[in-house]
Amino acid sequence: MATDQQFADYVLDQIREAGAISFRRMFGEYAVYCDSKVVALLCDNQFFLKPTVAGREALGQPVEAPPYPGAKLYFLVDEGLEDSEAISRLVRLTADALPMPKPRRPKKSKK
Question: Could you tell me which CATH number the domain at 5-97 has?
Answer without folding.
Answer: 3.30.1460.30
